[in-house]
Amino acid sequence: MDHQLCHLQLLPCVPRCPYRQVGLFLYISVNKIRIQSHHYHLEEKIADLYEIGHPDLVVVDAVITGQQNEIVPTPFPLGVIIMGTSGVAVDSVAARLIGFDPHEIRHLRIARSRGWEPVTDDEIEIISETPMDELRVKSNNYDCKFSDLSQLDTPIRFHLGKYPEGDDLCHGGCINMIKGALAVFEAYSPGALKNARDTAVVIGEYEGDVDGHGHTILLIGDCTKIKGEVRGKTKQIKGCPVAIPFFAIPASYYCKMPSVYMDRDYFIKYPLLFLLSFFYKFYNRIIKNIFCLRRNKM
Questions:
Q1: Left (φ > 0), alpha (ψ -120 to 50) or beta: where does 266 sit?
Q2: What angle do CA 177, 274, 189 make, to 5 degrees?
Q3: Contact indicator for 166, 40 with CB cutoff of 8 Å
């Protein structure tokens, strides 16, 4: 079996935009269907892209990476460019580089189970002027606390249950949403999570008991329920998944955290910018096309 090539080049950091986000899946889906199955099927959707086709060369610009959370990332100078002949190989090496085990990343497990090579990390050939161990040391301080709710320094208590008739948590849905929402709270007002109210947040079908400690218990998502004893009032926030603003606005009240969505300055600016974005979309899709058709007829 041929080895999959992955070439790592260590480069000096250069001045540029603080971070760059690349969302490949978002760019190949129209917005109306992007959110469909954005729940426990999300990792399968990513793996499905290999069934359509895959590039012969994959390049990742990791000179400046984003850490903490993809919604409001902070810059981390990793100083690396990764190139490879397999997306699975590049994802696996990149995951190890910032401290994740590729075997714990579900879309990689699914892709490998379907036969997409390399099926093990042993089949990846890494060519680099700098040893992999040295590159890992460089990323020792990479902050990924929002990838695990239990790592957050907050009195908010998270009770996570499996999705209906499932055998796992809904990582790609409401759990993913709440990580992004909490990152937004912290970015807007540093210390917001630590100073939040002692609130119980439940996602999925939770088997145990939940005590609100005198405060309202938040049930996140359409399928969320508590199968054990409930001690306190509950408030269900509907959605599958719940959109970040639909959680952040009530959470600001129940968890006592300052929210950008309730900021008076942004409260005025956001609707105006939202309408402006629709105007530009209308102009680009309709008006521009009309001008192009008339020009072609001439």
A1: alpha
A2: 50
A3: yes
* pLDDT (tens digit per residue) in 184-225: 999 999 999 999 999 999 999 999 999 999 999 999 999 999
Q: Has this prediction a pTM greater than 0.70?
A: yes
Q: Identify the helix (H) or strand (E) that includes residue 50.
A: helix 42-52
Q: What angle do CA 31, 114, 60 make, to 5 degrees?
A: 55
Distance CA 190, CA 222 (A): 30
C-alpha 292/C-alpha 284 separation (Å) is 11
Host domain of residue 157: 146-259
d(CA 2, CA 149): 40
Please check whether residues 200 and 117 belong to one and the same domain.
no
Using alpha carbons, select from 94, 91, 99, 72 the residue that is nearest to residue 18.
Answer: 72
Dist. CA 78–CA 139, nearest whole Å: 7
DSSP state of 70: S
Per residue in 76-96, pLDDT tens? 998 888 888 888 888 888 888
> 285 in a domain, yes or no?
no
- How many domains, the chain? 2
In a shared domain, residues 150 and 104 = no
Q: Is the peptide bond before 241 cis (omega within 30 degrees of 0)?
A: yes
Q: 124-128 and 200-206: which strand pairing?
A: unpaired
Distance (Å, rounded) from C-alpha 136 to C-alpha 66? Answer: 16
Distance CA 36, CA 81 (A): 33
224-254 exposure pattern, b = at least 16 Cβ within 10 A, e = fewer: bbbeeebeeebeebebbbbebebbbeebbeb
What residue type is 200 in one-letter code?
A
